[in-house]
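> call design_seq(struct)
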């Protein structure tokens, strides 16, 4: 609530306030330098605040409460020369787990992620994707109430993204709040129930993905054979070009625009193979919020 953090003349967080709920996967979005990592570090007491309070379930967050949270930092945090299982058990113990519970949870997670046969290997011997899996295990090992992940999908192949994404959704369904940052907006749209968008350290947009996708002006998707730019739409009054992806032209229509007029303009360019109203993509919500 009201988080403020300055680094010299730079205001990284500017009276930032937002709420998250248990049982949800929440996307924490913003351009580079928006203040996402600083916010995450503030939640864990890793950076000082000029003002503001971090609260969870009505209580100010302190060290004992943070032991019930899980964190996957941007710079990661594993000891590269330490054996994987030993490291995870150690992290579990730091979160208050008994030795037996930490040992059991470590091997259950490693088995689920296909890494139990690497338990005695050093972290540095793993591929990037498998290091990501171990880092995620470190954040989830103790069954946290809130887990905060800074770019957990970065550098993963599609199967890795699907695997990690399924785990995040599963954690939310079990009652955990999962807050994660990512620049992969298509993945955020698929995984998240809600999003928070910040810029220059202050809140810009927050809400349910479905609500944001169905709000705002009408969206029309048009595909014209041989057209890769959508330049034809610039001649139609009240129509704004939003995105062009692989020949799919996404248009924003003012309230008064007649779609028949748009269709006729598209037909003058070529054969129309797609012409359909669609909801806003999260990428469109993001760009329009930052304008």
């Amino acid at each position: 609530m009201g988080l403020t953090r300055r680094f010299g003349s730079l205001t990284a967080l500017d009276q930032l306030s937002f709420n998250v709920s248990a049982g949800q996967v929440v996307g924490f979005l913003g351009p580079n330098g928006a203040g996402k990592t600083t916010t995450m570090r503030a939640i864990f007491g890793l950076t000082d605040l000029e003002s503001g309070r971090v609260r969870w379930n009505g209580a100010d967050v302190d060290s004992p409460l943070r032991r019930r949270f899980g964190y996957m930092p941007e710079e990661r945090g594993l000891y590269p020369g330490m054996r994987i299982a030993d490291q995870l058990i150690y992290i579990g113990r730091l979160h208050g787990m008994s030795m037996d519970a930490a040992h059991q949870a470590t091997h259950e997670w490693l088995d689920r992620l296909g890494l139990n046969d690497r338990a005695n290997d050093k972290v540095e011997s793993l591929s990037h994707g498998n290091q990501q899996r171990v880092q995620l295990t470190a954040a989830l090992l103790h069954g946290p109430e809130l887990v905060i992940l800074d770019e957990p999908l970065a550098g993963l192949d599609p199967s890795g993204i699907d695997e990690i994404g399924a785990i995040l959704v599963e954690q939310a369904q079990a009652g955990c709040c999962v807050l994660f940052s990512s620049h992969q907006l298509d993945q955020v749209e698929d995984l998240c129930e809600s999003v928070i968008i910040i810029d220059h350290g202050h809140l810009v947009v927050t809400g349910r993905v479905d609500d944001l996708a169905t709000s705002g002006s009408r969206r029309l998707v048009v595909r014209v054979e041989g057209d890769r730019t959508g330049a034809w739409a610039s001649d139609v009054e009240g129509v704004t070009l939003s995105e062009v992806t692989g020949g799919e032209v996404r248009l924003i229509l003012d309230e008064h625009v007649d779609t028949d007029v748009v269709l006729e303009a598209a037909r003058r360019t070529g054969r129309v193979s797609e012409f359909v109203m669609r909801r806003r993509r999260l990428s469109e919500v993001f760009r329009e919020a930052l304008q």
